[in-house]
Write a structure and sequence with these properties.
The chain has 291 residues and is of the alpha/beta class. It has two domains: 150 residues, Rossmann fold (3-Layer(aba) Sandwich), CATH 3.40.50.10170; 136 residues, Hypothetical Protein Tm841, Chain: A,domain 3 (2-Layer Sandwich), CATH 3.30.1180. 39% of the residues lie in helices and 26% in strands. It is globular and about 50 Å long. The two termini are 24 Å apart. The relative contact order is 0.16. About 5% of the residues have low confidence.
Amino acid sequence: MTNKLAIILDSTSDLPEEYKKKYDFTVVPAHVIIGDKDYLDGITISREELIHELIHSKEKITTTQPSPLDFINAFTEALKSHEEVLYLGVSSKISATYQNAMIASRRVDKEKITCIDTWTVSHAMNLLAIHASKRRDQGMELESIVKEIQEMIPTSKLYFLVGDLEFLQRGGRIGKAKQVIGNLLNKKPLLYLDDGIINSLESVRGLDAGYERIIEIISNHAQEYKNYAFSGLYGLDNPKFNKLAESLRTKLKPLNYFNNPLGPGVLCHVGPHVEGMSIVKIPDSALDMYK
């Protein structure tokens, strides 16, 4: 059965392939530029290949957002088999991706395409998208889905540790985090998304202290929210971090949880040495959906 509503994300969502199939998502890829070569995020370059380039290549590595034409093609294709489209996009304060999607929606059919600026990125976007998918599959109308997602966005939190600030500085996406000196005296910058912008929270002395601090912060949000979903995210595979994330899941018993790697488009800007967690409050009206 064809869904009435198509849900589209961009590749900064870092959506695993199995989630695309499970939740029936379409992903519009960003472009990863290495030297003079142009790759499609997650399609013509994998995360493993990108990590190798980040560590070993001397070429300039950056990204460009999907163009309006990329979104026009995605929206047009989606409307061939769906009545409406919901696009959930990366924060407009760190990328022009959302603006390009808005341009495309007006050119295709602005009455049938709804674009939401999630004010976040990566797996924090996925938590919102999965909620929208579950509501769609329940038969909820688009207007009500949008209302719930907009209610959830201010509660969506993302915290992450990076090895250093080089990649964020190079990409110009660092916001107020540029005030952090992350490499001195073995200190690591603990960053977070605040109103759609990457900011510094504090510096921590070493990874273990950073992990403890993230777990403390997520636990505090969990206590405040009562009902929530959370996720772990990482660059290079890190068994120690993955074990901590799984332990926190057992302790907190979230309504939804996953712990997945970051994709090429985001890794370009944070580097391979990154771990973090995101959390979002689930509306009281939606609790039965997660049982």
